Predict the 3D structure of the following.
Amino acid sequence: MTDAAFSALASLADPSLLLMLAIGVVAGLVIGLIPGLGGTGAVAILLPVTFGMEPEAALAMLIGALAVVHTSDTVAAVLLGAPGSASASVTMLDGYSMARQGQAKRALSLAFLSSMAGGLIGAVGLTLAIPLARPLVLSFGSPELFMLTILGVSLAAVLSRGNVVKGLMAGFLGLLLGLVGTSPTTAEERFSFGSLFLSDGVSLVAVALGIFGLAEIASRVGQRKVTEKPVELTGGWGAGIREWLTHWTQVVRGSLIGIWAGVLPGVGATAGTWLAYGQAVATAKDKRKFGKGDPRGIVGPESANNSVEAGDLIPTFLFGIPGGVPSAMLLGMLLTYGIQPGPAIVTEHLDLMYLIVWAFAIASVAGAFLCFLATGSLARLTRVPFAVLGPGLLVIMLLGAFQEGGQIGDLWVMVLLGVVGFFLKTTGTPRAPFLIGFVLAIPMERYYYLTANLYDGASWMLRPGVLVFAAVLVVPVLWSLVKKLRGTSGQADDGHRDEHDGPEADVDDLEGSLAGTAWSAGLAVLAVLVFAGALWVSGSFSEEARLMPRLVATCGLAAALLLTWQEVKVRRSRTARPVGTAPGTAGEALGTGGSTMVATRVEPVTDKRTHAHAHDLRIAARTFAAMAAFLVLAMVGGYLAATLVFTPAFLLYAARVRPRTAIAYTLVLGAVLLSLPTLLPVDLPLGLLQ
Amino acid sequence: MTVVVAYADTPPGHAAMAAAVAESAREQEAVVLVTAVRGESPPEVADLERAWPEAAGRIEVARGDLGDPSDAVVQVAQRRDARLVVLGLRARTPVGKLVFGSTAQRILLDATCPVLAVKPAPG
């Protein structure tokens, strides 16, 4: 075991691997600085670049980026009060207050060092997980692996923030999308509607980039520009470094919470960071300074958000169950290299596992070091409005999705899924279960068939491992029941201490902004139709190929119907009760004067909200239309020509930048596109006229 | 000195408010309300003064920087250097006590000043 570890370290001494790691670290730091792009964005943007590389080099680059994204995302949170990624919003609470008191360097050095330690402890956790889990993983047969895939999707659905039914529905939608294409057991085509393109299945990169990447672009292009002046970088680095050493217990606790949150599917960096903050508050005796610049409010969460990414990798590589969205994409990448995560990786690719551990640890240290050196100059990047970054990101993401299959159809799928992702996001439906379901659909089916053929009847269900997983599966169901009960009976008490619903939590105002409106009811109805259609179509499949789609469609139909019923109930109760009289007992206790006052106060607010919705939707619709226009251009005139026309148009009309900037931007982007195919194994889509 | 109330718009919350008003009457201390229910908007001072006229002029509404209600109450109490925290308890079934944690319990354990727990009048 130690041999494998040190030979992996020796292989990292290879200059080409080190170069890839360095590129990954720099890219990860830059992506972390840009508001709105987190670990998901980092992997999504870099993944296409790695196609055609050796698996070691590709992993070094991706892990390097993933390890440091949460180191640099603090910069914008502390200096601007606008978090670089959702998980940095926690650091903002205390970090921004500290920076406004003229101690920006103290806050940043605390954050960088904690991030580094979080990454290192995460890497140690990953290392320890390998020998601990190895005998366990090797004892797994197909029934256990089948149960694990079910567990992965359902845990992701239940543990994701928000409504459990919505999470389940998203998980089933993802599973259904994963079933499109050729059935692994009978080699017949499912849900391909006779199209040759769909018979290959939908490409993972297109799905991930669409659901997360394009949806993110569309929802952020309309975001108001950052007008605040950043806080000056004052104070001393040294004070923060010394202070950090006194908070080492917080670092360890935060990191362990992060690893745990990472191991659980669907609990990503954001939730893990809030958990760490809640823990820091709960264990503190003196709570006076939290929210006003308490170092403990920075140290714990910052350690957690880096170790989450390492924790995510544990179930991904050892069991083949992605712990989060970035690792779901890594899993997809490994599968394209023919490396099957799970028991096989422990026996055959142990060196790769240790390479990941070393890369993670080295990147964490290097990332923190670079942050100390370059924060002053890099901080300016955080002020670039997203609308300006939009076209560049769009061109790169679409190009990335094209690399996997070389088909322009993938790009249309991606834009379509971008629309889906946007509505999932705005209606408060978690998207992580969707992607995890998509990735696990085929393994789930394969393990199920192995199980059904190797064991007669239901005897596999009595295997101890299966029973344990079944028990774990029941716990979240009970937990959601408990949540329900508490929702109806307890108003004053909420047993669970978490900071999630804190007043400062809604930094991302679009997330869930359409929940409870006609749009979210419409989404539920649409899902019902999709599942019903899938059920009907699956009737024509052969006995063997039919089982899985049937199961998914039936369960999905049930979830979607339940959700529709919930939506209708919410809407009916809202229309029955006029806006504003919601605090029912308030009127009785304080006299009727109070309730009418409340009523008049609330109404203009809802008015403004619906107005904002219309505005957001209009911008998103325009952005998706622009994406479609770009694709049409690319199909006609080729990718480069489309970029040269689309980018300046978008920059001048949507982002409203100066013409000079637009021209320079376009030329740089064009040059990058021209030189890419010579530097990397990348193909540009060809147009009809070329 | 001040008296902090973990306020909720429920019978236990009103009982806590009444107790706080009575407690603070002798020394004419400020009564600081903190909402102890997640997601509920804080009450208006004017409404409260109408309901408890004897405490008029002494009622304030404060907000902590923390999301968890019990943490917010303790934080405000510490910041204001409160003499006393008053909170209302509500009836729980034995199963309810077992399954659900309690904001009140955490305030009792975390607070650094005396805590007065009151129950609403039966019926």
Residues 488-508, 578-605 of chain A have pLDDT under 50 and may be disordered.
